[in-house]
Amino acid sequence: SVDAYRSQRRSTRPRKQTEMRTKNVDAERVVKKNLMNQTLNVQEKVKELNDEINSLQAIVHQTSQALNCCVDEEHGKGSLEEAEAERLLLISSEKRLALLTELNRLKGEGASQVVTCVSEGIEPCGGTVTLSHLQLPLKVEFVCSAMQKPGKPSQYFLVMIRYGSGSIVATPLATAEDAQNGDSITFPTTVTFVEINTYRYMYARKEIRSDFEIDVEVYSLSNCVSLTESVLLSQFANAHFSQCNQEMKTSTSLHIVNSVRTSNFTLVGSHKITLASLGKNKFPLDKVPFLSPLEGNIYLKLRCWPHSAVEHRGFLTMFEDVSGLGAWHRCWCALSGNCISYWSDPNDERRKTDRSRTMLWGFFKIEPISREVCVRPRTFELITVRPQREDDRETLVTCRLWLSADTKQEQTQWIQKLNQVLVDLRTWRSFPASQPLSDTYSLDGNQSQESSC
């Protein structure tokens, strides 16, 4: 009856409101819990940074004490051990300074730095960046003069590569005598940057963002000591080691030995590596002194690998040109990596190889098709171009691949997944050198042209 319907409707209304309120309360609790966890994570980061900074400070203090004792040749002045200590002091100081900057940033931002806005557009995936085959060219005159003067080298060189606040890698020391390929020093160092959180309770592996910036810096250590300086150092050594029984001189010597110093390595060139540097192997150095023995460039091999984990599966109906006539074939499609594979049945994916596949390297646009162009509903197209063939009139021919989904939701999912793959490929420039723009194969294994080829 009408009364029963009205009473039933009234009884259901409060329940819906109660359910909505319960959902809102649960959502608020989840948000508060996440904020509390993020705050605890920031505190753990600060604690880990403080521990590492203290450890680096101890290394800096011990290395400074050792270097302060190198006052003449008898006590290691100008030796390779002193240069190695200067290298260790430089690396420890730079790491400590970078961690202090990160610590101040965390303390200033606090838990607010974890609240990020979700972008409406498609963001490219992260990846891995590798730098290898580092070569540092020197001036020919400097190399020739260094080869003619036997004995201790006049200058030491090293290359420091840094990314972010904690990733700092330095090459071994090298001199002009290490110039194997003519006048270039080759460093046997390969650096792979994959951002990893090493903070306690937060062990996680992260990909490097596509907008990365890697600083390549060249440092030089001069090993030339003037006669006046050597005399002063010798006098100080005699005063320090022969008259330690005197109270005033002993206290002064201990003060000098225990003092913390900075490294004698000086920056003689730098360059910033970005994703735009991909494909190059020669990079100019900035801030190179006029009298520096460096030629002014550095050579390295830059390689990038995107970590695109886009996968999607489902039934699609593909349009094919068979003997000049259009035909639609339903098949099981699997998107993985940078290609779409086709099977006749979902069970064939595990048991058989794919009957055909479409590589997505050359496609630049994926969008739905209106009913005016294609009467089949829920159809979308992949657009690419191919070079001119003998029977073509135009220099570039537009090729289109038409695919139809079963539902509107599946069509939207396929378009989003495919566009994500295209963004990843274009951003990281993951195009094979010998691969054509697109390779699309029909179900019978023969290469075929799409609907508009």
Automatic annotation (TrEMBL):
Q: Which Pfam families match?
A: Anillin, PH
Q: Where is this region: Disordered?
A: 1-23
Xref: Gene3D superfamilies: Pleckstrin-homology domain (PH domain)/Phosphotyrosine-binding domain (PTB)
| A single GO cellular-component term on record | actomyosin contractile ring
> So which domain of life are we looking at?
Eukaryota
Q: Which UniProt keywords apply?
A: Coiled coil
Coiled-coil regions in this chain? Answer: 32-66
Keyword Plastid attached: no
InterPro entries associated with the record: AHD (IPR012966), Cytokinesis/Rho-signaling (IPR051364), PH-like_dom_sf (IPR011993), PH_Anillin (IPR037840), PH_domain (IPR001849)
Q: PH domain: which residues?
A: 309-423
**Any idea where this protein resides?**
Cell projection, Bleb
Q: Name one GO biological process term.
A: septin ring organization
Role summary: Required for cytokinesis. Essential for the structural integrity of the cleavage furrow and for completion of cleavage furrow ingression. Plays a role in bleb assembly during metaphase and anaphase of mitosis. May play a significant role in podocyte cell migration.
This one is known as Anillin
Q: Which organism is it from?
A: Latimeria chalumnae
